[in-house]
């Protein structure tokens, strides 16, 4: 069945009330029955929840065949914890048929890719899917299609009971003996623990893995002892070099800077750019550089940013410290400056993934957002964006908060170079739709700006401000004239991943790619 | 042109390609890998074969490792590798003639 972005969704996926994507805000006003976890009572006073090994903790939590684990990705590519836990479950407890439900998976998790190939991990639910996991899932080696959700879609699915977490694992830079966790104050800090918060509340069991045991109570806690079954102390939870970069430096690439300047110009031309406006930016080159140019316009107009959300990095913390933004609300930190600022700098707060982006709760931050500046692997002439699959059809990206912020914000700006190497970023049809075109408003490239025809109001704003713009078709033709028109990818029938829209409907599927070889004709 | 000895042109940098030609006896034996294989493999193959044809190379083993190069780069690297293989790359290049 074709959905609202023209993607053909196989009927066999449309069971148990699953629907195809119908357009934005389709689920607005509907009721959901929230799921609840089945948790164990710890009535008898206990001095400590520390157990000797991860295997012991898993046994205590009833880990068995068919179990679903949740992990969070604040340790990013430096994470050791997800591997440790899956390895202990498989090698020490002999558990099979495991589902890994992580907020993101990447090159740190090659061990899990091995277990997929061995048929021990049979399900993957994640936002990001990169590295070898992306390759093996793309090759059709996972028993069930991977389910890809946005950062808002995940807490929605958990709350709705579509994902039932048997054991949530919190990789905690610090914990006390009862399981109060924080992302700061330890040896390997990551700042916010926002993605772990919803998981810990809805999981049957919660295991905290830390390498820095601190005095009770470790407060204010991001994940609270009331939800924790066991605490395991290990030597090291991650590689600090890969957890947070030293500093997210602003790009010096003139192409990035030119695009960033144009992003700021577009923002300043809209009616939403006024005292107290709200803002989120990605951490890619041009998106991050937009901060710099935006500050110039804020100074010129004598206005301040009311609040900023998202994955946070240094440049936003600097704006906060200079008093140019009122509050920063933070679900994840990308560099040491933001890690060292959260809950330390006044008005730099932590939030959960649900507070950030869940479309089914009553007040996610993204829904009050004025502007979001985002990158794209591909954007097509329908303004649909792909941030999941490479142009070769292999899973190697992450929707993250992209679809959530795009849908919630008043003005969603995509900034991307027109071509990357031989790949046309602006194209006729994206490989996979991860953010539907009805949520995307403006495209800024190094060859020009295009506005979604669904937003005549923004077109008028740009015209008034004298910002030249072209149609997205013109940008696509320009791209193809530079790199040549790509051949269509060829696919097998087998679906390797299902991409859920943030509201839980099916936005797209990724099939197994039929690779082209030079001898095939 | 006849491929007299093995020759190489290009690099493995992004947006470039490395072309290796070696003497052959059984027509053009092309081996091609590319970072953009699924979308541009056919076009790269076509460009390589057309360029070899223009240079009147009949027999050669040709190995192309492409890192997302544009067509103009592909042509230039193939031309260069062929000229090098018959020691014609240092002077009297037929610019605007067979080399375009």
Q: In summary, what is this structure?
A:
The complex is a heterodimer of chains A (521) and B (100). Chain A is α/β, with parallel strands linked by helices and 521 residues long. Chain A contains 15 helices and 27 strands.
Instruction: Outline the biggest β-sheet of chain B.
Output: 4 strands, mixed
Figure out the total of helices of chain A.
15
Strand order of the largest sheet of chain A: 1-12-11-8-2-3-5-7-26-27
Q: Largest sheet of chain B, order of strands side by side?
A: 1-2-4-3
Query: What integer is the average pLDDT of chain B?
Result: 94
Write the CATH fold name of the domain at 254-507 in chain A: Glutaconate Coenzyme A-transferase
- Spatial gap, N to C terminus of chain B: 15 Å
Q: Distance between termini of chain A?
A: 33 Å
- Structural classification of chain A: alpha/beta
- Give the oligomer, counting copies of the same chain as homo and different chains as hetero: heterodimer
Domain module count of chain B = 1
- Assign the CATH superfamily of the domain at 254-507 in chain A: Glutaconate Coenzyme A-transferase
- CATH-defined topology of chain B: Ribosomal Protein S5, domain 2
Rounded to the nearest angstrom, the radius of gyration of chain B is 12 Å
Keywords:
heterodimer; A: 521 residues; alpha/beta; Glutaconate Coenzyme A-transferase; 8-stranded mixed β-sheet; 15 helices; 27 strands; globular; B: 100 residues; alpha+beta; Ribosomal Protein S5, domain 2; 4-stranded mixed β-sheet; 2 helices; 25% strand
Write structural notes for this entry:
- The complex is a heterodimer of chains A (521) and B (100).
- Chain A is α/β, with parallel strands linked by helices and 521 residues long.
- Chain A has a domain at 254-507: 3-Layer(aba) Sandwich (Glutaconate Coenzyme A-transferase), CATH 3.40.1080.
- Chain A is built from 15 helices and 27 strands.
- In chain A, the strands form six sheets. Chain A has a ten-stranded mixed β-sheet with strand order 1-12-11-8-2-3-5-7-26-27, with helices on both faces. In chain A, strands 16-15-14-13-17-20-24-25 form an eight-stranded mixed β-sheet, sandwiched between helices.
- In chain A, helix 3 runs parallel beside helix 4 and helix 8 crosses helix 9.
- The mean pLDDT of chain A is 96.
- Chain B has 100 residues and is α+β, with helices and mostly antiparallel strands.
- Chain B has a single domain, classed as Ribosomal Protein S5, domain 2 (2-Layer Sandwich), CATH 3.30.230.10.
- Helix content of chain B is 33%, strand content 25%.
- Chain B is built from two helices and four strands, in the order βββαβα.
- Chain B has helices at 37-54, 71-85, and strands at 7-10, 17-23, 28-34, 60-66.
- Chain B has a four-stranded mixed β-sheet.
- In chain B, helix 1 (37-54) crosses helix 2 (71-85).
- Chain B is globular.
- The two termini of chain B are 15 Å apart.
- The chains are: A alpha/beta (521), B alpha+beta (100).
- The interface between A and B is medium-sized, with 19 and 20 residues.
């Amino acid at each position: 069945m074709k959905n609202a972005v023209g993607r053909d969704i196989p009927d066999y996926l449309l069971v148990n009330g699953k629907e195809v994507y119908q357009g934005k805000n389709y689920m607005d006003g509907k009721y959901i029955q929230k799921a609840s976890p089945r948790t164990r009572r710890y009535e008898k006073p206990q001095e400590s929840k520390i157990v000797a090994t991860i295997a012991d903790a898993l046994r205590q939590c009833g880990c068995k065949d068919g179990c679903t684990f949740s992990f969070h990705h604040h340790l990013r590519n430096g994470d050791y914890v997800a591997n440790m836990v899956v390895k202990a479950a498989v090698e020490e407890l002999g558990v099979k048929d495991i589902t890994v439900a992580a907020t993101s998976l990447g090159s740190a998790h090659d061990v899990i890719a091995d277990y997929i190939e061995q048929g021990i991990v049979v399900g993957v639910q994640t936002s990001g899917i990169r590295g070898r996991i992306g390759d093996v899932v793309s090759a059709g080696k996972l028993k069930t299609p991977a389910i890809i959700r946005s950062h808002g879609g995940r807490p929605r699915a958990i709350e709705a009971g579509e994902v039932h977490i048997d054991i949530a694992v919190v990789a905690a830079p610090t914990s006390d003996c009862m399981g109060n966790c924080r992302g700061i104050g330890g040896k390997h800090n990551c700042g916010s623990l926002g993605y772990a918060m919803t998981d810990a509340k809805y999981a049957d069991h919660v295991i905290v893995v830390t390498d820095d045991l601190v005095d009770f109570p470790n407060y204010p806690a991001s994940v609270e002892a009331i939800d924790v079954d066991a605490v395991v102390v290990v030597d090291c939870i991650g590689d600090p070099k890969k957890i947070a970069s030293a500093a997210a430096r602003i790009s010096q690439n003139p192409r990035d800077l030119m695009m960033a300047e144009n992003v700021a110009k577009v923002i300043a031309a809209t009616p939403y750019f006024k005292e107290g406006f709200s803002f989120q930016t990605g951490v890619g080159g041009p998106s991050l550089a937009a901060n710099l140019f935006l500050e110039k316009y804020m100074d010129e107009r004598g206005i301040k940013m009311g609040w900023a959300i998202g994955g946070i990095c240094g440049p936003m913390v600097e704006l906060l410290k200079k008093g140019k933004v009122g509050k920063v609300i933070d679900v994840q930190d990308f560099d040491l400056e933001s890690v060292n600022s959260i809950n330390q700098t006044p008005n730099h707060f932590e939030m959960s993934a649900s507070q950030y982006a869940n479309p089914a709760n009553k007040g996610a931050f993204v829904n009050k957002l004025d502007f979001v500046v985002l990158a794209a692997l591909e954007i097509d002439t329908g303004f649909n964006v792909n941030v999941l699959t490479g142009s070769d059809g292999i899973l190697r990206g992450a929707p993250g908060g992209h679809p959530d912020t795009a849908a919630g914000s008043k003005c969603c700006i995509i900034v991307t170079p027109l071509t990357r190497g031989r790949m046309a970023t602006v194209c006729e049809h994206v490989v996979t739709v991860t953010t539907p075109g009805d949520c995307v408003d403006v495209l800024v490239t190094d060859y020009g700006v295009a506005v979604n025809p669904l937003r005549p109001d923004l077109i008028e704003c740009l015209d008034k401000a004298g910002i030249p713009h072209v149609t997205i078709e013109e940008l696509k033709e320009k791209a193809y004239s530079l790199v040549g028109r790509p051949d269509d990818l060829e696919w097998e029938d087998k679906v390797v991943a299902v991409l859920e829209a943030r509201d839980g409907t099916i936005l797209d599927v990724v099939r197994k790619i039929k690779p082209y070889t030079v001898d095939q004709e | 042109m006849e491929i007299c000895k093995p020759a190489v042109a290009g690099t493995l940098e992004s947006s470039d390609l490395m072309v290796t030609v070696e003497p052959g006896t059984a027509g053009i034996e092309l081996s091609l890998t590319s970072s953009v294989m699924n979308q541009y493999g056919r076009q790269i193959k076509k460009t390589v074969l057309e360029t070899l044809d223009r240079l009147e190379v009949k027999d050669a083993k040709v190995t192309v490792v492409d890192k997302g190069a544009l067509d103009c780069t592909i042509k230039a690297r193939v031309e260069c590798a062929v000229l090098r293989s018959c020691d014609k790359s240092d002077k009297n290049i037929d610019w605007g003639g067979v080399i375009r």
